Amino acid sequence: MLGNWSNSVDHLVHLLVAFVLALPIGWHRAREEYSAGLRTFPLVAMAACGFVQTAKSVLGAGAATQASILQDVIIGVGFIGAGANMKEGAVATGHATAASVWVVGIIGAGSGTVTTISGSS
Fold this sequence. Notes:
The structure is a single chain. This protein has one domain. The protein has 121 residues and is mainly alpha-helical.
């Protein structure tokens, strides 16, 4: 029973780290009044982290499994970022937002793959 609580705490710590690392990026973008900001970036990071952690719990933490999980996160977050690209006539916008969403997704995925101090993965 204690092991389940320990795993839950580890998962929450990973999610908190993803949130904290994405928060300054979201805050800066919200302050500059860009389209995606304070809500979007921490949510993307936490979702990527949660996805990685859930997949690790279900599929295991082997290197091949990790590569497959990260590949899926990269594709999924890239798809979300693609929605930020807009084209009006000959002018395309949203590239920085798309790149930022992608980077924050990878930050979240990285937060989910790191082993905690307690040694669980």
